[in-house]
Description:
By secondary structure, the protein is of the alpha+beta class. It has three domains: about 1-120, no CATH class; about 120-240, no CATH class; about 245-525, Aminoglycoside phosphotransferase (APH), C-terminal lobe (Aminoglycoside 3'-phosphotransferase, Chain: A, domain 2), CATH 3.90.1200. Helices cover about 40% and strands about 20% of the residues. It binds adenosine-5'-diphosphate and the ligand O=P(O)(O)O[C@H]1O[C@H](CO)[C@@H](O[C@H]2O[C@H](CO)[C@@H](O)[C@H](O)[C@H]2O)[C@H](O)[C@H]1O. The site of adenosine-5'-diphosphate has 14 residues, from loops. Keywords: ATP-binding, Nucleotide-binding, Transferase. InterPro entries: Kinase-like_dom_sf, Mak_N_cap, TreS_maltokin_C_dom.
Amino acid sequence: MPHPLTYSTPWTELRDTPxxxxxxxxxxxPPYVNTCRxxxxxxxxxxxxxxxxxxxxxxxxxxxxxxxxxxxxxxGPPEQYLLPLSFVTHDQHDSPEIPAKGIVTVxxxxxxxxxxxxxxxxxxxxxxxxxxxxxxxxxxxxxxxLVFQRGRGLDAEDVHAxxxxxxxxxxxxxxxxxxxxxxxxxxxxxxxELTNPEVDMVAFITENSDFANIPAYAGSVTYAAxxxxxxxxxxxxxxxxxxxxxxxxxxxxxxxxxxVPKRQFAIREDVFDKVELLAKRTAEMHxxxxxxxxxxxxxxxxxxxxxxxxxxxRFTDLLDRRYALLVDNYNKLDAIGQKLAWVFMEAREMIxxxxxxxxxxxxxSLRIRIHGDYHLGQVLATRDDFIIIDFEGEPESSIADxxxxxxxxxxxxxxxxSYHYAVCAKIYYSAETETLAPDHLQRVSDRWFRxxxxxxxxxxxxxxxxxxxxxRNNNEINFLLLVYLLEKAVYELGYEISYRPAxxxxxxKGIIDVIREIEKIxxxxxxxNDGVPMLQxxxx
Length: 540
Ligand SMILES: Nc1ncnc2c1ncn2[C@@H]1O[C@H](COP(=O)(O)OP(=O)(O)O)[C@@H](O)[C@H]1O
Ligand SMILES: O=P(O)(O)O[C@H]1O[C@H](CO)[C@@H](O[C@H]2O[C@H](CO)[C@@H](O)[C@H](O)[C@H]2O)[C@H](O)[C@H]1O
């Protein structure tokens, strides 16, 4: 247990005891925060932690302190994290509820021994949080106000109810709790100075449409500091689900996989049914977000020069970083990975020519707010339908960039990439196919992917109901899909090099497939004589 703390002051008065916060900053929080899953700065050059804002918050017979913690670095600007703190005495914490990861340290306060814990593990704090949201009770705090909003998803009978609560064992970059087994509350750990896009999106869809395939918005907590709004948490309806669609697709792919060594190509009809249903829900989500007469924050916009420049700048910057990362990690790739990497590196001129085309090509399709980080892991599979979650947007982008409007085809591309991942992960990396020839495996997975992609795309456009102002015509659809597929696969390349090097081949293969399609279009538009080098697939 790190650094026990002793003070003669009771917990309820510690807010005004500078020695306590200094001890936390210097001795307690650095080791503690570095064990927390939600802390993203573990690999950075940390220079310390600072207790930024400290808000006293009632917690039944006691108080909690909602701390906005600043993590300081020598290699970049500080980050802000949310850490509620509670003090529980030994008789109060004699429950299995507080896991080791929730215990910050041991404290002796005014002769009372207890634990300083992450407030989410204190039932009194959770109950108070719920009450504030349900009753929309705001609190004035230093520098601003804590604003508690209730959404349509909270049932009238629960507004004044005392409800049960628990922390969900979701170990991710945020924390989750459940109220009354009905409401899912997400506590954002890393904070940003703007409303979290997830609150904008979920509240907009719930309040302005009939789309029922997201968990309805039940409320949020915001720190309103002057002109800045910092979102601290959001509540939605809890969804009874067995698994996410990534796992469900993996289950379906098992049947497919077992048939491969027998040289049979088998996709069950219900797999196509599921793909079609997910495409339909995706289209309905976009139709709910297509709101020409609404709030300007959601109104459709054209492909302006400003947007094109933004996307091109972001993509070329990403491309530079990915090429550098690939060169640094080239020796770690296996033989097939190295060949794919070569083809990608040799294709740079062609990619740049394609980017130029995006700068100038007339485009009459429209852009709207979209999910932004759409893949199979963001869809919960219920018994016979799908519920779409996690509208926080792309984790690598700033909050302002996550609110930029794109063609909804960016989400479509995200899901197509995800199906590609699902089949490659299964076919390339399973014991059942270990002894089979790689080019055979490649043909089999390509075939599965083509059929599934076509099914998804067709069902999506069917539900959108073409012609539709969002999409000018098929040529634009095909062109924009290539833009977003390429961007996504190049993004994934960095994600895999950093987190799952064994899977680097999947995005590399995805990139090369897109470049192949781009080359086909180029040849049919300009012939072979436009001066851009051909794709070097003979390396493969
Ligand atoms: N409304 C909900 N009902 C039930 N479970 C949910 C709900 N929203 C999210 N979850 C569960 O919590 C996990 C994390 O949620 P997500 O929104 O992806 O958070 P994060 O941004 O922390 O990844 C999901 O994979 C899912 O299992
Ligand atoms: O954590 P997030 O959901 O925001 O997204 C990150 O992690 C994803 C992996 O969990 C990663 O997604 C990639 O791998 C998925 C399979 O694990 C696949 O379905 C996706 O298509 C693929 O992009 C995502 O890129 C990353 O941002």
